[in-house]
Design brief:
The chain is α/β, with parallel strands linked by helices and about 240 residues long. It has helices at about 10-35, 70, 85-100, 125-140, 150-160, 190-215, 220-225; strands at about 55-60, 65, 75-80, 110-115, 145, 170-175, 180-185. It has a seven-stranded mixed sheet with strand order 2-1-5-4-3-6-7. The chain is globular.
């Protein structure tokens, strides 16, 4: 090489391409994990807070209407998903398997809440058709529910307004027998359903002595119980 010849400088576009690639990866992670994903799991601002409102309508299968009172004393998982949502469809089989795992537990409930792409679901007929078609195509025999007018989702967003900047799908919450949030996940993460299952096992174990005590002394349990106070959320359009 001629000593007077300077080395060829690297083309600046290579660095630009790298920065663009990094930006695309970050955007993808944000879309998949959802807003607030940095605090997903069993730690974060959501943990320990109590739901103020919940009402779910039956959509498919043997579902029946659900309110906060139906959750009392039971460990509960509520998952908001959509047939139109790729991360939701990816996670759904794992949730079905989890429901089958805990199917024999009377002190556990799972509610799979199908949500339309438009977000508010005032008319449940088209949502029911889409959900039935999806479940049939995958041969999933699980009941599903609807959050009509997004009332329960609005209440959740208001409850977590100090750090939750929008509602992402899928969103999953796990509640203890007292109605407190013990787990909160937004977006799909392949580790999430394992974390959910572990948390449910822990809560069921902790819930068992209280359940046995109430069964052995129903009068004392009734005297010490406090019904949750709920109020309908006015849906804004």
């Amino acid at each position: 090489m001629d000593p007077t010849t300077e080395p060829t400088a690297k083309k600046p576009w290579s660095w630009v391409s790298l920065l663009v690639l990094i930006a695309l990866v970050l955007v993808y992670v944000a879309l998949v994990r959802g807003p607030g994903a940095g605090t997903s799991g069993t730690a974060g601002p959501a943990i320990g807070r109590h739901l103020t409102y919940l009402r779910l309508e039956p959509l498919t299968g043997e579902a029946t209407s659900v309110t906060l009172d139906d959750l009392s004393g039971r460990v509960t998982l509520v998952n908001y998903w959509g047939t139109w949502c790729p991360p939701c469809r990816r996670e759904f089989p794992e949730l079905v398997a989890m429901q089958e795992k805990f199917a024999g537990r009377d002190d556990f409930r799972m509610y799979l809440v199908s949500c339309g792409e438009e977000g508010t679901d005032p008319d449940l007929a088209p949502l029911r058709t889409e959900t039935e078609q999806f479940l049939a195509s995958k041969k999933f025999k699980v009941p599903s529910y609807a959050d009509q007018n997004a009332a329960t989702r609005r209440a959740l967003v208001l409850l977590l307004a100090d750090y939750l900047h929008g509602f992402a799908y899928p969103t999953t919450i796990v509640l203890d027998g007292g109605g407190a949030i013990r787990g909160f996940w937004q977006g799909y993460d392949q580790r999430a359903t394992s974390e959910m299952a572990d948390l449910i096992e822990q809560l069921l174990t902790a819930n068992q002595p209280a359940t046995e005590s109430a069964d052995s002394n129903p009068a004392a349990a009734a005297a010490g119980s406090t019904a949750a106070v709920t109020a309908p959320l006015t849906a804004t359009r």
